[in-house]
Design the sequence.
């Protein structure tokens, strides 16, 4: 029986693609580059903002990353102002979270987004008592796909990894859940397609949040 659900944030719990695309496009514009469309942004995110900036620079033509250090600072400043730009929960997420709370399931968020920005996003879209723990970048655990954050969360909740479901929408998330010894749930409404997710052979693949409820019945 599962006692804990750990969710990735961007592309899993929250639709943040407009915020991310808008922010990285503004950062690239600072250096005279064109915008980064949502389709490419979906491919560039998932491994923390430093990788996002690196990939966006290469995409924009800065293959030697001559602007990298400055671009990190520019992006951080821009994203601080725009992290909640047009963000919203995915359809069915609120209902799933309510269902899990009724079942007494522990609920955590594990993201590679900066801790402060992650908390700001969650506070904007959800009531404060939805989540038992939020772990982001900057609190002393390795970023995903390292499983340290997921394992720390399980330990905090006093549950075994085998009693946890790990939800995510990218290859990074699939690796995180697998490395942590947790059953992984690949969601197809996020930033990567079903074909990519299937290569990791997750325990479950769902196309709507309600499709996972049956495992708790």
Sequence:
């Amino acid at each position: 029986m599962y006692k804990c659900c750990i969710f990735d944030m961007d592309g899993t719990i929250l639709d943040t693609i407009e915020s991310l695309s808008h922010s990285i496009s503004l950062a690239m514009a600072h250096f005279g580059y064109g915008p980064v469309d949502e389709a490419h942004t979906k491919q560039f995110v998932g491994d923390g903002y430093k990788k996002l900036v690196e990939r966006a620079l290469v995409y924009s033509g800065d293959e030697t990353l001559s602007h990298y250090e400055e671009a990190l600072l520019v992006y951080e400043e821009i994203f601080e102002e725009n992290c909640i730009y047009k963000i919203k929960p995915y359809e069915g997420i609120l209902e799933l979270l309510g269902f899990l709370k009724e079942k007494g399931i522990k609920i955590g968020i594990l993201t590679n987004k900066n801790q402060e920005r992650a908390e700001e996003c969650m506070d904007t879209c959800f009531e404060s008592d939805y989540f038992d723990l939020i772990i982001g970048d900057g609190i002393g655990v390795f970023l995903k796909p390292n499983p340290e954050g997921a394992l720390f969360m399980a330990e905090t909740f006093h549950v075994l990894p085998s009693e946890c479901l790990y939800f995510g929408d990218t290859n990074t998330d699939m690796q995180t859940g697998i490395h942590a010894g947790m059953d992984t749930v690949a969601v197809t409404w996020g930033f990567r397609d079903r074909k990519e997710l299937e290569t990791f052979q997750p325990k479950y693949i769902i196309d709507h949040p309600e499709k996972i409820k049956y495992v708790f019945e």
